[in-house]
Amino acid sequence: MRLIIIGAVASGTSAAAKARRNREDAEIIIYDKGDYISYSSCGMPYYIGGEVDNAELLTPRNPAFFKSKYNVDIFTNHEVIAIDGKVKTVEVKNLATGEIFMDSYDKLVIATGARASVPPIKGIEYKNVFTLRNIGDMNHIKGFITENNPKSAVIIGTGFIGLEVCENLKALGIEVTLIEKLSQVTPGLDTDMSVYVEDHLKKNGVKVFTGVTVQEINEKGIMLEDGREIKTDFILISTGVRPNTELAEKAGIKLGVTKAIEVNEKMETNMEDIYACGDCIEQFHVITGKKVYRPMGSTANKTGRIAGDSITGGNLRFRGILGTGIFKVFDLAVAQTGLSEREAKAEGYEVVVCHNIKPNKPEYMGGKEMIIKGIADKASGRLLGVQIVGYDGVDKRIDVFVTAITYKAKAEDLFHLDLAYAPPFSTTKDPVMYTGMILDNAINGNRKLITPDELDTLIKSGENYKLIDARVVSQYDKDHIKTAENIPHSKLRKALNDFDKDTVTVTYCNKGVTGNAAQNILLNHGFKEVFNLSGGHKHFRKNKKS
Question: Which candidate, 286, 393, 325, places its Cα nearest to that of 159?
């Protein structure tokens, strides 16, 4: 069998390696139009910032390595310019010499990846405007910084890469301004969680503009649509990526609803003996089953392995994604998996949402708070999504949630997980367990939650309600929600006779625990409609300044 793979990096080389492990007699050839066949794109921001001091650490494998270990022939600077699926040939151009030649295959893998998505902004061709998608881009940026010693930078877009570069530019002493056309940073998060990221950016000296669009780039900097001009020395466009599908589409290979290549669970395209994997394909979501496009290096490796296995008679099948992601900006970790609240509502779920603020381990062991947003389906109790913003231990918790959601766990199941505990690592009841407890109480225990947005709507509605601040007097006097009455938890039972049990009542404390205790007292005394403020006063203040 002669196997040709178009594209290397994560998915192409994974497909080749798995195919070789399964079939020693296969002839495997990779054509890649770039100079580098395997590199860590996620490590590039850290080389730019100097945390990684040797670029070769990001490119550990070369064609000679693959030839010696896997007996795979890799040709760099060779671009496949056409595919003929009927006669099973590819047309290849040697970019170094200009020579064009034909090659034949028995099986073909398309692993052409993705490229930076560049918005149609006037002036994009200026020499101080960059994207960051590959090692060449990284070297150009690093070279520009070394040669020009810029004092300021503008980053357009606030996704993972943009924020990671932001941190690394600040480490070099470069002043950074972030531009985001949406009304919030980190578009993948819900707004009530993205505010934590934005505040953290500002605390670290980053200027943030949201809800604005860049109209033009000029020799001084950028011009916004509202007429404001931001002067800057160089510009990074970080507005996402687009799948490289032109070659496939020209050959008659079907694209999916996301405009990436459509494949089945074996990575087969609509054309016989042609497979695709990596950032050029669409995936499907574990929860909804719907097609999505969420390119990630981890998924590229996985789909490449599946393609190589399928080609050589294996039984691996793709099981979908949850859109899991994590990144660090300064010392803050931000993670998400599954559906966001807005996505879940768009899918028709009646959701229950909680905001759980807990330390990753006891404070006496140096624990630091994280805020966990959990989203569950009210009807079934199934956990749908989680977002976490914190410091230490965020990666550990998000991976537990990923596993739980993958295996269709309900919120109530989280409490029963036998998680590892010792004070250097966790609290007795882990934040994962607490999240499950809060959601389960809301779903099955009539301990209803109200979000800051919902409370703000209630306050402005003119409807009759009672808002109880269950904290001690000194905390109330320092700051409280404007319509709240201070009745400390310890005095609540004595004040019950003055309350109307039919009035909608909302309780709150600093983070939610004492508010829940006050809620329990009211419910146990026959109050009909009692809500606890999700995340307490601390989360409300983060989202509602008034």
Answer: 325
Fold of 129-239: FAD/NAD(P)-binding domain (3.50.50)
Burial 401-411 (b: 16+ CB within 10 A, else e): bbebbbeebbb
pLDDT in tens, 159-213: 989 999 999 999 999 999 999 999 999 999 999 999 999 999 999 999 999 999 9
Distance set, CA 529 to CA 82, 130, 181, 440, 526 (Å): 66, 55, 40, 18, 9
DSSP 372: E
For residue 66, give Cα distances in angstroms to 305, 308, 417.
Answer: 15, 15, 42
Tens-place pLDDT, residues 346-363? 999 999 999 999 999 999
What single string gives the DSSP state of each residue in 3-63?
EEEE--HHHHHHHHHHHHHH-TT-EEEEE-SSS-SS--GGGHHHHHTTSS--GGGG----H
What CATH superfamily is the domain 448-543?
Rhodanese-like domain (3.40.250.10)
Rg, the chain, Cα only: 27
Same-fold call for 129-239 versus 331-444: yes
Spatial CA neighbour of 381 closest among 357, 400, 408, 356:
408
What is the residue extent of each domain of the chain? Answer: 2-114+242-311, 129-239, 331-444, 448-543
Question: Which residues, including other chains, have CB under 8 Å from residue 377's CB and lie 6 or more apart?
Answer: 344, 349, 350, 351, 352, 384
Name the β-bridge partners of 91.
Answer: 82, 102
Structure-token match 């934040």, residue found: 431
What is the second-level CATH architecture of the domain 331-444? 3-Layer(bba) Sandwich (3.50)
Contacts of 422 (CB under 8 A, 6+ apart): none
* 2-114+242-311 CATH: 3.50.50.60
Q: What is the pLDDT of residue 61?
A: 86
Over range 251-259, report the average pLDDT: 98
216 pairs with which residues across the strands?
A: 122, 223
Q: For the residues 310-339, what does the mean pLDDT come to?
A: 97
C-alpha distances in Å from residue 225, one per residue of 162, 212, 214, 377, 382: 21, 7, 6, 40, 43
CB 411 within 8 A of CB 383: yes
Which residues are 205's β-sheet partners? none
**263-274: b (≥16 Cβ within 10 Å) or e:** beebbbbebeeb
Q: Tell me the longest C-alpha to C-alpha distance in the chain.
A: 91
Residues designated as active site: 42
The pLDDT of residue 382 is above 70: yes
Instruction: Give the whole-angstrom CA distance, residue 60 versus residue 47.
Output: 14
The reported pLDDT for the residue numbered 42 is 87
Q: Return the number of other C-beta atoms located less than 10 Å from residue 528's C-beta.
A: 12
E strand segments, 60-131: 73-75, 78-84, 89-94, 100-104, 107-110, 114-116, 129-130
Residue 65 binned pLDDT confidence (cut-offs 50, 70, 90): very high
Rounded Cα–Cα distance for residues 82 and 91 (Å): 5
